[in-house]
Amino acid sequence: MALIVQKYGGTSVKDSDRLREVAKWVVKNKAEGNQMVVVVSAPGGMTDSLIKRAEEVHKTPSGRELDRLLSVGEQISASLLAMAIGELGYKAVSLTGPQLEIKTTNEFNNAKILGISSEKIVERLEAGYIVIVTGFQGIDEDGSITTLGRGGSDTTAVAVGAAISADQVEIYTDVDGVYTADPRIVEDARKLSSLSFIEMIEMAGKGAKVLHCRSVELAAKYGIDIHLRSAFSWEEGTWIRGSEKMEKAAVRGITHVKGVAKITVDQLESNGSLGDVMDVIEARGSDILLINQGLTREGQFEISLLLKEEEAVRVAELLRERLGGGNLSLKPSLGMVSAVGIGIRSNRLQGRVARVVNNEEMRVEMISSSETSLSYVVEGAQVDRLKKLMHYELIEKSLSA
Ligand code: ADP
Ligand code: ASP
Ligand code: MG
């Protein structure tokens, strides 16, 4: 008998047919003698449409009210799945983040989990129930509902797995594994049978939205293996775990993020200004994708930051207020393409990519390189092309060599 946490994403619970399929699979696992906890996302598209509804009535809705609204999608899936399981003759109970006391920080729209009271889950499991948990949400110390950021149900699943010391965390989605690039964009992308936590953290952090980055960070911290697999084929998927044998190819995947913008603040007299800039960004709780600080020949400082476009617009306004603004520029509609793997520098991959990009005459806005990733920021319209070129140069060529 194993203690299993399964998480189902939006497409997997989109409608009643899908809910019935999921219910059958959960019940099959239960009938095999396992204790089952199931974390669900909102039905596909619902979170987007709730955000749209909110923005129809207020240009910048308050974080508290928006989170309160967004938490509803997951609650709908959870109750419906409990009913679908009940229909198959099994006992199921659905619980919301607040009911389970999933305590979080009060950073609305991007809250971090502080703790989960495992007894509430365990007592129901022991009473024979399949426990269904709403993903993506918790409660702050004032009792307000918070959400964990887009894609956050993965993080709920791993956090629940850690809290109850689950034997297995399975993330079910609409692809059958983690691929060397988004299979919906790069047709030649290959499925990976396994990859290490660090590789997956880099891939998720650089835009592979197949897993919420913080879910993999938590899995690494608590040593929980993740099995990412399909809720459509139910086949074996990709394992993300601590110890992985190195494969021949240094690069494991090419990721991308679209809809990003670059903020540049120049003519700064002191490098202390970077601290002011960071104060503003941290107070807003925005994630920075890339950061560069340089010194011009005239001895002035220049800071460039890459953020998601909506965030960049707000951060730019705040920075203008704080720094007096004339030297700030915002470049929207950019994208970032990254190669992720271990040994980027030692395998001298920077030059290979630079030559490919030169041949294409792409306008490169920023580059960042480390031992585990190499990122290029280009015009949004160039992202798919660059992604295919990098996939060919760094993955397909190496595998066929
Ligand atoms: P869910 O709703 O189940 O959480 P998501 O839409 O968040 O699903 O994530 C699954 C999607 O991630 C896939 O449909 C795929 O387009 C995308 N994706 C991006 N990068 C990758 C990758 N490297 N491997 C597999 N899927 C990827
Ligand atoms: N429903 C949320 C979203 O669409 C959370 C999730 O699906 O993980 O972002
Ligand atoms: Mg997701």
UniProtKB/TrEMBL annotation:
Which annotated residues bind ATP? K7, Y8, G9, G10, T173, D174, Y179, R184, K209, V210
- What is one Gene Ontology biological process annotated in the Swiss-Prot or TrEMBL record? lysine biosynthetic process via diaminopimelate
SUPFAM superfamilies registered for this protein in UniProt: ACT-like, Carbamate kinase-like
Q: What is this protein called?
A: Aspartokinase
Catalytic reaction annotation: L-aspartate + ATP = 4-phospho-L-aspartate + ADP
Q: In which pathway does it act?
A: Amino-acid biosynthesis; L-lysine biosynthesis via DAP pathway; (S)-tetrahydrodipicolinate from L-aspartate: step 1/4; Amino-acid biosynthesis; L-threonine biosynthesis; L-threonine from L-aspartate: step 1/5; Amino-acid biosynthesis; L-methionine biosynthesis via de novo pathway; L-homoserine from L-aspartate: step 1/3
Q: Which residues form the Aspartate/glutamate/uridylate kinase domain?
A: 3-229
One GO MF term: ATP binding
Judged by the first EC level, this protein's enzyme class is transferase
Which terms are listed as keywords in the entry?
Amino-acid biosynthesis, ATP-binding, Kinase, Lysine biosynthesis, Nucleotide-binding, Transferase
Q: What is its EC number?
A: 2.7.2.4
Q: Does the keyword ATP-binding apply?
A: yes
Q: Which PANTHER family match?
A: ASPARTATE KINASE (PTHR21499), ASPARTOKINASE (PTHR21499:SF3)
Q: What is the lineage of its organism?
A: Bacteria, Fusobacteriati, Fusobacteriota, Fusobacteriia, Fusobacteriales
The family note in this entry says: Belongs to the aspartokinase family.
Sequence positions that bind substrate = T47, E74
Annotated Gene Ontology cellular component terms: cytosol
